[in-house]
Amino acid sequence: MKFASRMAAATAILVASALPALAAGQLNIFNFGLYTPPDLIKKFEQTYDVKVTVTEYDSNESALAKIQAGGHGFDIIVPSAYIVPTYIENGLLMKSEPNQMSNFKNVKSEWVDVAWDKGRHYTVPYVWGTTGVMVNTKVYKGDLNTAAIIFDPPPELKGKINVVPSMNEVLDMAINYVGGEACTTDKAILKKAHDKLMEAKASWASIDYPSFEKFIKEDLNASIFWNGASSRIRAENPGFAFGLPKTGFLIWQDNVAILKDAKNVENAKLFLNFLMDPENAAMVSNYTRYGNSITGSEAKMDPNLLKAPELTIPADLKSAGHFQTACPPDVQQIYTRIWTDLTK
Amino acid sequence: MANRSFDVRKLPGAAAIAITCFVILYIPMAILVFYSFNAGKVIGNWEGASLKWYGAAIHNQAFLDAALNSLILATTASVISTLLATMAALATTRNERFRGEGVIHIILNQPLMVPEIVLAIALVIIVGQIKQVTGYTGLGFLIAAHTAFCIPFAYLPIRARLEGMDLSLETAAADLYASRFYTFRRVTLPLLSPGILSGFMLAFVISLDDLVISDFLKSPGQDTLPTYLMGELKRNLTSEIYAISSLLLLLSVLIVAGSWVATRKKD
Amino acid sequence: MNGPDTWRRWALSLPAVAVIMLFSILPLGVVLVYSFLTPGDFGNVKWIFSTDGWFSVLFERNIFDDTIGLSGANLSILFRSIILSVLTTLITLIFGVPTAWFIATRPPTQRNFWLFLITIPFWTNLLVRTIAVQEMIRSEGVFNRILLALGLIKEPIQMMYTDFAVLLGMTYVFLPLMVLPVYAAIEKFDFRLAEASYDLYASRLFCLRRVILPLIKPGVIAGSILVFVPSLGAYVTPRVMGGGKSMMLGNLIDLQFGQGRNWPLGAALSITLTVLVLLALIWYTRLTAGRKERDHG
Q1: Would the pLDDT of C164 be above 80?
Q2: B10 and chain C: CB distance < 8 Å anywhere?
């Protein structure tokens, strides 16, 4: 048993040597992929002597499923506006009253009384953006502001298209494209959207939350995508451009909240307050390339970002944009079934 | 007749296919290692040779944390599973069959018969509940799960060694009135040690290789090397990831070479 | 065997048995139970008995008019999983058997070197090998660059995210699993037997068919099962190479526990996959048991 005991001793030493690295506190964040600035986390760790872990997810739906399963161990979650009511109704969020926090005064007034969390009792705004279409203009020379790039793709894009696994965003865009309104109860329209999606799927390469590098290296040339992510790709491959479908596109906001069964509540509250500081909000924007909702952050933001084409909605397209909401439960159920049909 | 003196060993075409096979196996790995020395961040855009991504990896805290987790997990799980497998192998070999031996056999091999993803899902359901009830989210769950699926890998070589062992030495020791424990420690165990070593190595590598079960079971901060790599692969495929992959490749070369040398000495 | 010794043996085996019971067999039982429950609205389950999970493995209700039909999507994934696994097995056979033969017929001093070469990929992390093979077939990967340089194509061919990519990936990662058992079988083979049969004026073909093939058959069967079983349950390789569109059963199961939010269906699919694997293994034991009987008879 000499060998085994030696190995056990080695393990004990390893475990022991790992311990001093532990900070006084802990904070476990569950966020979308490539969405948490590393320098922001480092700053928070140093300011509050807290060890932060960041775990990433692909979509609101899979994050919710993981939280529902229990035993997740996370403190912080970043749900999109449309899914926040679901979290609240299912008792998954802590009523942490961000509106009482010291930095809350920095939140721009139009983002305070929002439909999904009136008066901000649960959530803090993270960033907001638009969902449109990103395409490689080296390959595709046509109109940018159309969802046809995804749903009726020209031959040069076939097999090079990605669709992000974000149910409501994809379905809303498809319903708009076939002439309906998001969350419509009109079954004929829903069926049309369903059939359009199934037909288009044959031309897609993937339904994935792919690494940016797949676009930069042109393994993929088009995607339903978000403005900020698109801007980050353009920085590395100038061929890529972002368009907003004339038939309708989404404006969304993601929100930071504390989970009901969080273990590190005090650190989580510190983090929420930390995010409402203008300098930190600017760090988030500079990394994610999305706009934030914090007054005074512009001064610290990258000037290139403030004038990035992805961040301004052209005047003639303003009327096509609509804010993303959760659909009524019966519509949401049909959405889910269409989505399951599409992704399986 | 001279023409008929054909050597069956030279199956026509076998050598050509075999060499092709080795080329196919090694070219992708060679290219991976090659690009890990790329000075540029984007893979495939060659910007000159550099070791900078290895430097970046060594200073990447997330990678180091994952490596430490992997090491703790693989070491603990393989030590425990080897210990348990050795006990079980001693009980189930070199004797008349006893009642329930068949059942024990099937149970010990059961993890081999279940696809990894199924086991991962199954464990997630149960472990999620336990985590919620007990509030414990430590590395213990991963260690237990890894130990379970490593047991058959440790068990098989140990059992094979035991079955091939000569009983006469032990009988001789017993004849000389050596105690049962003494015989075990001074005779059985040294003879068995190559089997235990290869069982341990196999269990270690199997644990180190696991992505699916760790990925589903891990709590925050419990990334292992494969789960960390998978996360980066989906988000951030850069030359640094190729450097880390090359380090893992080097590790397996070292392990194979090590076990080669170890068994050579024993012979 | 007397009583006390049986007890001692059980006691020695008990820790290993207990760990596997708790962390492998019991969870599978829970999966079986979950396959008969009702899906929760946002994942998880409601504790209401339902056979819908099993029903949805093969059938589906139309979203718009509630008519019942075969589930085309699930069937095509099931079909793809089986076909790709069979093809992977066949291709690894084509490459693996001659390779094993080649290694086994080297002089003993060289043999270790070749064995060493085949063992390294076998012990290398699966994900690392998948990343390596992915690099080959990307739009700007090695294959496309060579084809472009040779002037055979004008535009890079899209290989990633196709069934071909999944097949290539699985063949690459599972190839060593075929070579090693076939090698083990050939190594035991006494080549003088074949030479003797050949000297007896047997034709080459006869020698191959009646002498060599039966002797390497156990290795071929073992190798096939070692490749087929993990291919059928593959998850990592199709996820990386298939991009969420060219899915296999393992990915479909994963989807039900995440985005799909239908745990009972995922559980039913898990049981289905496990049963398929068990069927392959039972077929294997039958095949090898049959051989042994014949050997003794």
Answers
A1: yes
A2: yes
